Amino acid sequence: MGVEGAAIATIFSQFVTFVLNAWYIKKFKSIEMNKKAFQIKLSVARKVSALGISSFITQMSFVVVMAFENNLLAKYGAESKFGAEIPITVLGIVMKISQILNSIIIGIAAGSQPIFGYNYGARKFDRVKQTLKTVLGLSIVISTIAFILFQTIPDKLISIFGSGDENYMEFACLAFRTYLLLCICNGVQIPSGIFFQAIGKSIKSAILSLSRQILFLIPALVTLGHMFGIMGVLYSGPVADGLAFVVAGILLILEVKHLKQANGNSQTLVDDTSTDNKLKEQMVITISREYGSGGRYIGRLIADKLGIKFYDKDFVAELAKETGLAEEYIENNEQKRTALAGLNNGYYVGLDNSDELFIKEAELIKKVANKESCVIIGRCADFILKDKENVIKVFVYANQEDKIKRATEIYGLDKTKAEKEIKRIDKLRANHYKHYTEKNWSDHSNYDICINSDTLGVESSADLICQIVQEKNVTQL
What we know:
Rossmann fold; 2 domains; five-stranded parallel β-sheet
């Protein structure tokens, strides 16, 4: 049936796949599908969209590039002896073949992602460098093989997808040899993006993920196509590959220079605070706080006054023990989520170190909350313990001027840096809270007590919270 048969086969395969998936839903053991389950909820839709946005951007970048390429190939191809159709057909095949080989490189790099992330976090930088060397070596071997094939037997590669006249075969050879001239660079550029993704460098990863397709290829297509016609469109391939390789190489070299061989030391969860418990019944106080509001100090005072445990940095030591990640890495990455973090999953979707940290922290928080009365600082503890009784959720905030003053006096920052740091840390905490709870961090309805620490002062704020806790404790008796 020719092309019509191919179209029918495509639609038929999609229908069969749909039926198989729909049938498999009946086998779900932990999920019950009913009419209510198909009602659209904005909170769920936002969550799904957030998780899928990186893949969407990655796929759409290819769509945008293809739109530019096809239009330029048709325009400049019509002005050449090849015509408008041959360049569009041939370059589409060339890119598909290239993507097959690139998929092997992506598979190697994605498979190494957990190794990169774990050992980087655990400060085992010798293993990070060894893994990076292995991945780059294998990827360069694959891309070198691809380069040799594209330069030596392009006619045989294109014939797999059908044959054409003399102009068709001539353009096919030109496309392979010119457009993919620097495909060997993919052996460095692709693994580099996934490497930065694995070690939590979201900005660098996002730059590398989008650099070739958006930042370099599209401008090169337009500029070189205008200058050299149909050959200019082909020249844009190696130009984009070369520039993306340079950016990846620079970022990679700078990062490797900062890797220092060290071993992470872990400790066990310790009892941080005293111990003459003044509460009759078990109580847990969670404290969320703006940076510079004095919330951590208030939490410490509450724990001291009530004679109960105080948990903050202790979680870092225990997480280091359970995950193998270094305490320094955990301290720099927990409770913080950048706006670009979602873009890191463009190549590989799965749990990253931030997800693992949150899961482990949630387990620890539930463990200590079930065991004893305590004060827990941050870490979405109010949300994690939302179904537990005898939990008082506190949010501590302060005026911007007072937070800046506290940051300059306590943390030794100058006024300008203090203001920037307050905004940065609060934004990271808000992103982290929103990502894992789907709630706004500063929404006062999430908490039982919201207090401006500068209205009463930290000492009086702690006294007031202690009074409320003790009254609630007595009432429950």
